């Protein structure tokens, strides 16, 4: 089992979550579409060669984003990450994947 966490701008929150859920991620027992989300502020500065969805090359940009956390089985984690990347508006979405211990 894995914990999958990604950050997404507020205006793309639901479409990106739906893409990840469609991959099969976010299931806990007899429940699906399970996640926790928290609102915050992301910051980045696009470098030369970037094609930012938001902001301009060389300028620091601050954006209202959501941190979305969910679980995913071993056999679906690669598909879940791929679905998030495909649906996400950023060139380089920020995300983490942790393998969970079975205690």
TrEMBL record:
InterPro entries: DUF34/NIF3_sf, N-reg_PII/ATP_PRibTrfase_C. Coiled coil: none annotated. It comes from the Bacteria. Gene3D superfamilies: 3.30.70.120. PANTHER family: NGG1P INTERACTING FACTOR NIF3 (PTHR41774:SF1), PTHR41774. This is NGG1p interacting factor NIF3. It comes from Thalassolituus maritimus.
